[in-house]
Design goal:
Number of strands: 9
Strand order of the largest sheet: 6-7-9-8
Shape: globular
Bound molecules: zinc ion
Oligomer: single chain
Radius of gyration: 18 Å
CATH class of one domain: Alpha Beta
Helix content: 25-40%
Length: 250
Amino acid sequence: MLKFGIVILGIFSIHCAVADVADCLTHAYPNITSVKNGTIYFKDGSSLAVGEVSNQPFTQRLKNASVADQLSQRYSLDFTPPKQYQDAGRLRNDKFFKALYGNTKTQVQNNLVNVYWKPGNIKIRFNQQNNASLQLQKVGDEIAQNPKLTKYVAKSLGSFNWRTIAGTNRLSSHSFGVAVDFHLPKAQHKYWRWDGCTTEDKVCPYPSSLLADSEFLQVVKIFEKHGFIWGGKWASYDAPHFEYRPELLI
Ligand SMILES: [Zn+2]
């Protein structure tokens, strides 16, 4: 039995970047039909090169990440303060998300549905493509099973919003309706830019309070279990932010 457990753990610890990228991406996203010879083929008929992992400085990679870059940083399931430039999930290729969730604001809007979010008795607009809304529903239902946990994520600060990331001209993951921000309790409600930081090259000290509350970390684990990453694990911490990124959790 123990041996079986170890084997299972081994399977789940495989990371997209080192595993078979084709298997990984097609498993994570139903709208990806295949990946052949370094090209991703999407259900909408479009295609995109996986590309190479860049050796440019991190701030440059953020601006023009390939899909290979996007997969190159491992999202840790541990709760330890991240090192500088540990921002798994912040490297994003816009074309990849457009092909998955909608190329324009209108196209994304047409893919949005209301998710009933039990922890706050509210509705959250989320993209139904690639099971994103379905997975968010599972997160909320599971959190709501433990009344101690609901207070952390009862208040949404917004999900869909076709906009660029603060301080950049890159589209935010909120543009695709696959991210949601919550008004967290004060100890957890931290964002690097609110602390006066503007560049990944000189990031603010990581707030230890983010990892101090074991009940809150249970909330994070439930999100991760269903394919969401938490912005609180980034060196450029964005703790209110949860984003559907199943390819980083396979
Ligand atoms: Zn956000």
